[in-house]
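Q: What would this chain look like folded?
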Amino acid sequence: MLWFLVAISAYLILAVVFLVDKYLLTSSILNPRVYAFYVGTLGILVLILAPFVGFFIPEKSQIALSLLAGAIFVYGLFWFYKTLQLFEPSRALPTIGGLTPLFTLGLIYLFSWGKETLSSKGVVAFTLLILGSILINIKVKENFVLFFTSFKASVREKLINLKSLKFSVFTAFLLSLSFVLIKYVYLAQPFWNGFIWKSIGGFLMAACFFIFFPEIKKEIFKNRVPRSGMKVEKNAKRSSAERGKFPKKTTAIFVTNQAAGAGANILQNWAIALAPLAYVAIINALQGVQYVFLLIFTIFLSLKLPQIVKEEISRKIILQKIFAILLIATGLAILALK
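A: My prediction, written as C-alpha cells:
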C-alpha cells in the first residue's frame, strides 16, 4: 500500500499548488493557455536527473508511448485551464473530477480486454471517493436552480451549458488517457526512465503550442516587451506591470510553485507506477483528498487573509462539506484496511 501513501502526499502538495495557481490565474498574471505552455516547458528540466538514474533509450514503441502519454497530459492541462477560464468552475470541476476516474477505469478495462477490474471493496471505495469529490466541489443550490431553470433558458444559454459539458468531458477523457498510457509505460520501463521520456513528450507538446498557436506567442512576448500603444514618459520609472514583465516577487512565487508542482507530479507518477493496473482509477479518485486539504487551507486563509482568499461559508455549505469529507474518509478507510 505504499502507492496509497505516496498518492496522499502528492495530493497534499497539489492542494497548495492549486491555491497558488488560482491566485496567479485570477490576478490576470498569466493566460491559462500560456500557463499550460510553461508547465510543459519546465517539465524538461527533469533531464538534469538523466545521468544519475540510469537513463536509456528503450524500444521505439516504448518511446512513442511515453512521448504520447506526456503530450496528451499537457494537452489535457491546456483544455483543463481553458475550461476553467470559459465556464463556471463550480460546474466544470465536479464534472471533470467525477468523469476522470470513470474514464480511467473504463480505458483500463478495454485495454486489458476485461482482465483488470477492481475488487468489491475497491469498487465501494472508488464510488465513495468519487461521490465525495463531486459533493465537496459542487454548489448544490446553484446547480439545483440551474437544472430547473434550464428548461426555460434561452437557446444561447443552453448552447453555453452544452459547450461547458463537452469541454469538461473532453478534458476528463484526455487526462484519464494520459494516466492509463503512462501506467503502461511504467509496466515496461523503470520509473525514472519512463518519467523522463514522458516529460520530453510534454515538452514537445508545449513546443507545438508555441509554434501553432499565435495567441500564445503574443502572450509570451507580451510578458517581455512593452505593450503597444502604452505612453511612457522619458526617464520615468515604470512598474513591472507597465513594462509588461512579471514582478520579481511574482516570478519567484511562480517558479517556486512550479517546483512544488513538479515534486507532486513525480509523487503522483510514482504512485501510478507502484499501484496495480486496475487501481490507477483509484489514484484518480483520490483527488477528493486534495479537495479536503484545499478546503482546510482555503478556510484557514479566508479567516487569516480575507483580502487574498475568500470562501463562502454558511451552515448548509458546512454540512455539505462535512458529509463529503465523511464519504471520502470512509473510502480512504476501506482502502487503508484493505
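The chain has one domain: 2-226+242-337.
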